[in-house]
Automatic annotation (TrEMBL):
Taxonomic classification: Bacteria, Bacillati, Bacillota, Bacilli, Bacillales
This protein's name: Tryptophan synthase alpha chain
Natural source organism: Halalkalibacillus sediminis
Family: Belongs to the TrpA family.
Catalytic residues of the enzyme: 46, 57
Described purpose of this protein according to its UniProt entry: The alpha subunit is responsible for the aldol cleavage of indoleglycerol phosphate to indole and glyceraldehyde 3-phosphate.
Catalytic reaction annotation: (1S,2R)-1-C-(indol-3-yl)glycerol 3-phosphate + L-serine = D-glyceraldehyde 3-phosphate + L-tryptophan + H2O
This protein's pathway: Amino-acid biosynthesis; L-tryptophan biosynthesis; L-tryptophan from chorismate: step 5/5
PROSITE patterns reported for this sequence: TRP_SYNTHASE_ALPHA
Statement: the UniProt record of this protein carries the keyword Amino-acid biosynthesis: yes
EC number: 4.2.1.20
GO cellular component: cytosol
Keyword presence, Metal-binding: no
Subunit and partners: Tetramer of two alpha and two beta chains.
GO MF assignments: tryptophan synthase activity
Length: 254
């Protein structure tokens, strides 16, 4: 993941990570969608695993999750499907899943299966830093990055701790709330990002609410790039692929 990110950043670009829900539109859509995002220039792709009880997901992501669950999509199926087509996709793949499905799968088998499927990183929103040892040792052994989320409300001390512990990139949440497209952002994020960048060894990406090319430009300029979920899911559903390309291109500085 580091080489790919460095290459993007050295070219003067910021990073762009689209989020999609695995199995939205049927499991058959997974590989074609990953290939499309890869070819459109995604720096990495965040792949959500559908789950019945999400915590931080806003309405768009929840609906996408429900659609995937009603298609009968399972974690095993997502891993198998990814494995069958992984070599066609250049971009690093990051799984976003809550801890419960991992427990159910079995931690050791989960790690060895995702490694075999070519997964490069993991985001587990409900796994606190203090509990990361549950899985981090096996992940480290296979060089799978455990990406940390940092919220706006954490104390300076806590922010620093999380920033230092994050691998792959640091996911800086830009709002006090849940995921979902929005019009604007309330807080001045400049200082927040400044201190995160000072503490972090990895790129700092902004995520939550980013939904226009202006947002992508603004957020990219204060950090190292962006994660966009709800807007991407919405555009994929409407098959507005040119709009997705414009969003991805908006992180280019030249
Ligand atoms: O949808 P948004 O507002 O563009 O935000 C990205 C977000 O959806 C994605 O990264 C994500 C989906 N579910 C999550 C749970 C926790 C943290 C992050 C996520």
């Amino acid at each position: 993941m580091k080489e790919i990110f460095d290459k993007d950043l050295e070219q003067g670009n910021k990073l762009f990570i689209p989020y999609i829900m695995a199995g939205d539109g049927g499991i058959d859509q997974l590989l074609p969608t990953l290939e499309f995002l890869d070819q459109s220039g995604a720096s990495a792709i965040e792949l959500g695993i559908p789950f019945s009880d999400p915590v931080a997901d806003g309405p768009t992501i929840q609906e996408a999750g429900k659609r995937a669950l009603s298609e009968g999509v399972t974690l095993h199926q997502v891993i198998e499907t990814l494995k069958s087509g992984r070599e066609k996709i250049k971009a690093p793949i990051i799984f976003m899943t809550y801890i419960n499905p991992i427990f159910k799968y079995g931690i050791e088998s989960f790690v060895s299966d995702i490694v075999e499927a070519g997964v490069d990183g993991l985001i587990i929103p409900d796994l606190p830093l203090e509990q990361k040892e549950l899985i981090s040792e096996s992940l480290d052994a296979h060089e799978v990055a455990l990406i940390q989320l940092v919220s706006l409300t954490s104390s300076e001390e806590r922010k620093k701790e999380i920033a230092q512990a994050s691998q792959g990139f640091l996911y800086a949440i830009t709002v006090n709330g849940i995921t979902g497209a929005r019009k604007n952002f309330e807080v001045d994020l400049q200082k927040h990002f400044q201190s995160l960048k000072e503490a972090s060894k990895v790129p700092v990406l902004a995520g939550f609410g980013i939904s226009t090319t202006d947002h992508v430009r603004d957020m990219s300029s204060i950090g190292d790039g962006v994660v966009v979920g709800s807007k991407i899911i919405d555009l994929l559903q409407k098959n507005e692929r040119d709009e997705i390309q414009s969003l991805i291109d908006a992180r280019k500085t030249k």
